[in-house]
Amino acid sequence: MSDKTVTITDNATGKQSEAPVRSGTHGPDLVDIRSLHSDLGYFTYDPGYSSTGCCQSDITFIDGDQGVLLYRGYPIEQLAEQSSFVEVSYLLLNGELPDKRQLEQFDDTITRHTLVNESLRIFFNGFHHDAHPMAMLTGVVGSLSAFYHDTIDINDPESRMLSAHRIIAKMPTIAAASFKHMVGEPFVHPQNRLSYTGNLLNMLFARPSEEYEINPVAEKALDQLLILHADHEQNASTSTVRMAGSTGTNPFAAIASGCAALWGPAHGGANEAVLNMLSEIGTVDQVPRFIEKAKDKNDPFRLMGFGHRVYKNYDPRATIIRKTCHEVLDELGVANDPQLELAMKLEEIALADDYFVERKLYPNVDFYSGIIYRALGIPTEFFTVLFAIGRTPGWIAQWIEMLEDPEQRISRPRQLYTGAARRDYTPLHRRN
């Protein structure tokens, strides 16, 4: 808390409320308006909470104007290039990077929790063959509480961390099972000898009839994407996890609520929208025409995967994954895929076009992640599931932080009521 204050004056009555100003390590100061209602009788109005700080957090910092993303103070560029998703998960959960022994122990713990109860696997038989994989993921993650209800004590730090380990470990297993159910293939059990990301690839693509060889370029690319998606401050799904968790619900239900929020096309479905846009454009020769349509304010067409609501300069995650994207395309030899060829042409033209350069409408992480997933042979409807796997350690870290915050109370947003004024009930026989 700084010594600064802001005085809010009610011009109608002359009454005033003095609000303290809270300062963080980075970023703009926040005005603490908790006494506003008791002092002046007002609440604030902020649809979408885009100007409201709902919590204080030590986990992630974003400076959209400068293109900065930090996990626990570490730049995303350094983590994506030098770290691993398992190590980043440890960092988000514990606040510091692990030493060699701690990392090995954490990795071993995650590995030992990857199996799911066989009864849980039967749940998938209840889903229709063409069920959306996010529907399966959301439902099955929520059902984990039925299997671990005896060890869920959200007030016990050890119990919270055990739940964290279980969720991070089992998310790829559940996701892969939803994938196999979707494509009509038998489930593949996790292999303890494989890395976290290698295990995910194996469970997705291995078949009983043949060996699956994990491509190290694909493994690195997927691991990097999971790192880039691991946390992103107070976005819609993270705030949903915090809000659900504030009621005291179990961690599996809280994470399931995050999955449901992430499913939305304006959030986790953005990279899916990129592939849908490419399908709409159709062929490379149509790119110039659609570029012009994107420039026309009166045309409903929009380039998906360009620019970002938060990053006003350049998405730092896109800088990293652009290089990896081209490495994947070269390694996997998918240059003859018409849609990927179209994506690369669109990137080339947009990066050179003054209209997009001046407005800083650069390709973002959703653009490149969609292309990578496509190159790996992952169906479009499964993209958001992979996003959920990556975001899981961030959700869990935010959930734990919320529970440990002494200022945290149950979330209870206010509203501006604009409905009918109080009126009396009219008996049915008297209504016209």
From TrEMBL:
Domain of life: Bacteria
Disordered as annotated region, ranges: 1-28
Pfam families named among the record's database cross-references: Citrate_synt
Reaction it catalyzes: oxaloacetate + acetyl-CoA + H2O = citrate + CoA + H(+)
Pathway(s) of this molecule: Carbohydrate metabolism; tricarboxylic acid cycle; isocitrate from oxaloacetate: step 1/2
InterPro entries registered for this protein in UniProt: Citrate_synth-like_lrg_a-sub, Citrate_synth-like_sm_a-sub, Citrate_synthase, Citrate_synthase_AS, Citrate_synthase_bac-typ, Citrate_synthase_sf, Citrate_synthase_typ-I
PROSITE patterns: CITRATE_SYNTHASE (PS00480)
Molecular function terms from GO: citrate synthase activity
Signal peptide: none
Keyword terms, alphabetized: Acyltransferase, Transferase, Tricarboxylic acid cycle
Residue ranges with Polar residues bias: 1-16
Family to which this protein belongs: Belongs to the citrate synthase family.
Protein name: Citrate synthase
Organism of origin: Spiribacter pallidus
Phylogenetic lineage: Bacteria, Pseudomonadati, Pseudomonadota, Gammaproteobacteria, Chromatiales
